[in-house]
Design a protein that fits this description.
163 residues; alpha+beta; 3 domains; flagellum
């Protein structure tokens, strides 16, 4: 039992370095020197981590072309149909592939051979005309809804006039 109590006290004493407890400076390093040693060790460890990171990136990317390399796969468009379900149009080596994507698989649907089948709008002028066309349709629909609401508001008075 005495050994247990003594070992408990000894572990508490080992948590605090003996050099930090000795304030007389006779033969033992000071707290400043210990802190300086710790900072230097930390700098060495961080330097080694950075060195290994840099070398691993350099060695692992030797086989892959850098950012300026030619790309053979391009995602043309994605249309979401439902949660976790979508259609994906991909260009691979000049050929267009239509793929179906769900949460657990990717399915080949169709190979599109003719470029004219795909309507790609990259011209900003065409996009602005499409936006204007959409805005016109939206305004017409809003006017119809307003007319319907106006007709319902007038309907009780019309009923009174008819009787």
């Amino acid at each position: 039992m005495k050994r247990l109590a003594m070992s408990g006290g000894a572990t508490a004493a080992t948590l605090v370095p003996a050099a930090a407890l000795a304030a007389d400076g006779q033969g033992s390093p000071s707290l400043f020197m210990l802190t300086l040693q710790m900072v230097a060790a930390l700098a060495v460890v961080l330097g080694l981590i950075y060195l290994f990171y840099h070398l691993s990136n350099r060695w692992l990317k030797l086989g892959a072309p850098m950012g300026g390399g030619e790309r053979h796969i391009r995602l043309v468009e994605t249309r979401h149909l439902a949660p976790k379900k979508s259609l994906v149009l991909v260009e691979v080596g000049g050929e267009y592939l239509l793929l179906g994507s769900s949460s657990d698989n990717l399915t080949f649907l169709k190979q599109i051979d003719i470029l004219e089948e795909i309507e790609v709008i990259d011209d900003p002028e065409k996009q602005s005309t499409m936006a204007a066309l959409f805005q016109g349709k939206l305004d017409a629909m809003a006017a119809k809804i307003a007319a319907i609401k106006q007709g319902r508001a007038d309907s009780p008075s019309r009923r009174a006039e008819k009787f």
